[in-house]
Amino acid sequence: QVQLLESGGGLVQAGGSLRLSCAASGRTFSSSAMGWFRQAPGKEREFVAAISGSGSRTYYAETVKDRFTISRDNAKNTVYLQINSLKPEDTAVYYCAASPKPFMIFAQAMGSRYDYWGQGTQVTVSS
Length: 127
Hints:
With 127 residues, the chain is mainly beta. It has strands at 4-7, 10-13, 18-24, 33-39, 46-51, 58-60, 68-73, 78-83, 92-99, 116-117, 121-126.
């Protein structure tokens, strides 16, 4: 069983930056691929970024790859999402998720790839 707890969200002006964190419990964190997803009001949940268990491989949605950076610290059982140049359209609840399956590009964009989800952290960007 893996429990995930996101933090770092908040209200920020357009152009600003945030770093989201996702703290994981469980002994399998370093072998788990991790992903970030987001869901804006009235919209479907969408994939944002994913990272392999070792951190050596990453994958981003095309819409965010120039502004978002995913990273992890396995010693701290934490995965991060650095968001720069925030835009109002980035407003959403951001969720982290864990997958015990081997990291696979493209497949990591599918929510069904992940077995564990956090409760989410709200990011609101004002114009």
